[in-house]
Amino acid sequence: MKKKLVSLLLVSAMLATMTGCGDKAPADDNAGGGAANTPANTENAGGGNSEAQAEAPAAEGKVVNIYVWNEEFKNLYEKYAADLADTHGVEVKFTIVANENNAYQNNLDATLQQQDSAADDDKIDVFLIEADYASKYTKTDYTLDVVNDIGLTEADLAQQYQYTKDVVSADGALKAVSWQATPGLFAYRRSIAKEVLGTDDPTEVQAQLSDWTKFDEAAAKMKDAGYFMLSGYDDSYRTFSNNMSAPWVQDGKIVIDEKIQEWIDQTKEYTDNGYNNKTTLWAPEWSADQGPGSKVFGFFYSTWGINFTLKGNAKGGDDKPDEVGQGIFGDYAVCEGPMPYYWGGSWICAAAGTDNVSFIKDLMLRMTCDADTMKQITLDTQDYTNNMAAMEEIAASDYKSDFLGGQNHIALFAESAKKIDLSNICDYDQGLNESIQSAMHEYFEGVVDYDTALENFYKAAIEKYPELTK
Questions:
Q1: How many C-beta atoms surround the C-beta of residue 6 within 10 A?
Q2: pLDDT for 350-404, tens place per residue?
Q3: Domains recognised in the chain with CATH numbers
């Protein structure tokens, strides 16, 4: 078991974790759900009382250890599933290790490799993973089969979006489950849309952004009116990378897909023409471009990005404009944009060696299969959850997001989610996605020419993955 993980760790050792499940945010944002990363610590959540523990079945451990990178899942557990601790007579402990500098994965890897020799109440029982590095763990024996080992049934899982199961399946086994689905949309400023495009209505704005030719035409209009279409170099990347025609690696060779080349060409054009503000993803300048006083029209964001990151950066408070009236709460709306895509997400894994299978089963059922819980999470947080029936119910309702000016964005997400295709994902996605973006920044900035940037990409990629060739 250890050998399988160690070999994958050697492949992945240089990968930097990006928050959301996609490119990762720094300490103040998280792509898996947007809650702030916190310094490494261990916290208790919803521990059972001693009487309940005494009545617990002998086969079930007294402590459930859950490893995460921020407080998002901890907060969800405490609000929607903390009663399970009393039901099972266990104490639930969260170990939180922030994502920066790959710290979460490094800590998790080291702890998992000690799993066999750890005391029962010190073993990892549950840990979370994100899409870009999911296969690093799901292809090892350190993750249990959710169906055959934990006991979830096909009926339990029937309402989960298929792509959320495909991304964490290995050799026919489902190795994790998620409470999220993360389809993407284009979030834009209503006030700028009215001024430049003549309307802020999402349907009418979408008609002017429905393909890349129209999107480029709108970008030129924005420039003429004194605005930027996008904030920086990386904003449209996921819309291209999620629509590649083939995997990054084919027969051991790195292949730059046509869609990646389109992103490079478009971003260079946008930079040279002044259509973007030359920021980089998660930089302070990029975050500021989402707030008051910004001249940036819009941002490509998936579900977590809108309700956590964008809402916070807009300085709008929890559900109202800020006290000094500088927020732009209600000035954003969303439309489909030129292409469907997804970005990020977080998955729950059951660790091999756990003695709390019964608790884990109930946790997974509650947090990823129960339609009422899924619906309530969306109503409470505006996030998009992993239950088709619950999301379709909200999509067809009179639900409105005050932050988005009264729009029912769940209806758009419900349509976008149906179009997600993960058929071209591969084990190298995280590292190669990171490397191509980083290498091309210097090209966009005019520091190096295209050929040099491309060679820098190959060099960085092969340093991460010596088994690959260009």
A1: 12
A2: 999 999 999 999 999 999 999 999 999 999 999 999 999 999 999 999 999 999 9
A3: 2-181+344-395 (3.40.190.10), 184-339+401-417 (3.40.190.10)
